[in-house]
Structures are given as C-alpha cells and as structure tokens.
Amino acid sequence: MNLxxxxxxxxxxxxxxxxxxxxxxxxxxxxxxxxxxxxTLALAGAARAEVLQRPWDNYAGQRNAALQAVDSExxxxxxxxxxxxxxxxxxxxxxxxxxxxxxxxxRHNYLFGRLxxxxxxxxxxxxxxxxxxxxxxxxxxxxxxxxLLDGEAGHLRAPFIHLNYDRVSEFVAKQNMYAAYDADGLRxxxxxxxxxxxxxxxxxxxxxxxxxxxxxxxGWHGLRLSLLMALFELEKYRLLWRSQRLHAPPAR
Length: 252
Description:
Low-confidence stretches: none
CATH topology of the largest domain: Spore Coat Polysaccharide Biosynthesis Protein SpsA, Chain A
Distance between the termini: 67 Å
CATH superfamily of the largest domain: Spore Coat Polysaccharide Biosynthesis Protein SpsA, Chain A
C-alpha cells in the first residue's frame, strides 16, 4: 500500500460518514481520532476505516503523529468536512509515481451553503498529499499549520470539496478564535497596536478582499465576507491593544 488517507477527527459524527465514503477508493483509510465522545467511532467502524487514537494537543502535533503512525510512502490528509471527488481521486493516484515530495490541492469552499470563488477563498491551495518520509509539520505553528517539505511540491488541478461554514455564527466564532491567536502572535513578536491600526488595517483587509481578490463578483455574499474579514482584522488589533495594556509595566 503506497497511499494512506488520514482523517483527523474529534466529534465529527456530522461529516465523517460522507467523508469516508468519498475515500472508498484509497487502499488504506485511517481515522486519527482524539477520543471523540459522539458517534464518530461507530460511523468510522461502519465504514471499515482503521481507527487510531491520540489525545489532542494541536494540529501540527496531531498531523506529525499521524505521519509516524502509518507506513505508506504517501499520505493524503483529508479533513472531516472535506470530500474527495472522483476527479481528485484519479489525479492523486496518477501522481504517486512522480518525483515530487508533495502536492498542493485546491479547495472549493462552501460558505453558508454557497460555493465561494472570490474574496480569497479560491484556489485556497492546501499541501495535503505528502511523501511521508520527506514531510513534517512545524511544531512552532500549532494553528494554520506549516508543512516542512524536503523537496519540491507540485499543484493538482482537481479540488477538494470543503463544506466550510453553514451559519454566519459558526464563521464568526472560528474567525474570532483566529483573531485571538494572531493577536497573541503579534504580541510575541514584539509588535504593538497603534491607533491608526484600528482604521487602516480593517480598511486594507476590506479593499484586498473586495477589490483585489474580486469579492464583488459574489455580490452580497462577497460584500458580507469582505466586511466580516475586515471586522476580524479590527478585533485582532483590539485584542493586541488589550494585551499590551495588561502586560505593560506599572507606572512609577
């Protein structure tokens, strides 16, 4: 078996059955679970997937552990809310004999039930098909994980289907989490929030999303996404401002 498809899970009963059905072509499928408490494991068993478990620490740690847990030459990482189309499955199989150390795969992101091809949501390349012995994840990047690849990576054409966010509230909660993570990263780098950041950074984000990345092509949907991403940029600097005040030395 020169390919293992790996799906990281933690309480993914909503998505796991359809995800595994889209991987029926793979010679080996591993559900790398973080001790789910819902029906994830039962559904994985019904799909005859192999289940391995490890306590969750972060994305980079989990993916590195999965790379060590399998012995195939290639690993295809698939998120539970992603689907592999027949076209992508065929393309993946066609490149396994190539010399590249990894392959970037584009994604079709569905936000609030709508395929979103502008405002930065496509092609959204993900480095997910990896030659196992030549790839690892940077432990310094626990979120927005970064693959450290020993060799060149190619680009596939067929996309994942990514069922990203169904509801605006779900989107807002996740982006607020990312804003907090990014604000903490800026603080650790020694950056400080300035008053002009609260205007210029959200404005730049909106202009980039809506005009440069052509969010306007998606009509109201693109406008809403561009405005929301500008709002999260504002939230990032608000959190950085609050953090630097909390960590400021006491006045003498």
